[in-house]
Amino acid sequence: YQFFHTEYIRFLSRRDRVRDALTEVEQCLEYNPNYAPCLWEKAKMLEILGKPGEAQAVYQKIAEIYGDSSEKNFTRNRLKKKISS
Question: Angle, nearest 10°, between helix axes 74-84 and 52-66?
């Protein structure tokens, strides 16, 4: 179910309906507040809306979910860049 919510969020975002998409994010996160794909979308939308502090908090939450690891992959590298910016 969360996967479909996330895809709908991406659909709305591509159509510049960011505020509608953010509402969908909250509905998706009601089912699982730690659903990382949805959290990534939330952070992206917060950046679009000019709320970098709130976006950083979401990136921090994603980092907590992923945990500490020396594993290097695209997602971890992307997260490190977002947190350090």
Answer: 140
Q: Is 9 exposed, middle or buried (0-12, 13-18, 19+ CB in 10 A)?
A: buried
Locate tokens 């950083």: which residue?
A: 56
pTM (two decimals) = 0.84
Q: At residue 71, what are phi and psi to the nearest 5 degrees? A: -60, 135
Structure tokens at 49: 């809306």
pLDDT tens for 7-21 read: 999 999 999 999 999
Q: Work out the end-to-end distance of the chain between its first and last CA atoms, rounded to an integer number of angstroms.
A: 32
Tokens standing for residue 5: 């919510």
The angle, 0 to 180 degrees and rounded to 10, between the axes of the packed helices 36-48 and 52-66 is 160
Cα distances (angstroms) measured from residue 6 to each of 23, 26, 68, 70, 81: 11, 11, 25, 28, 23
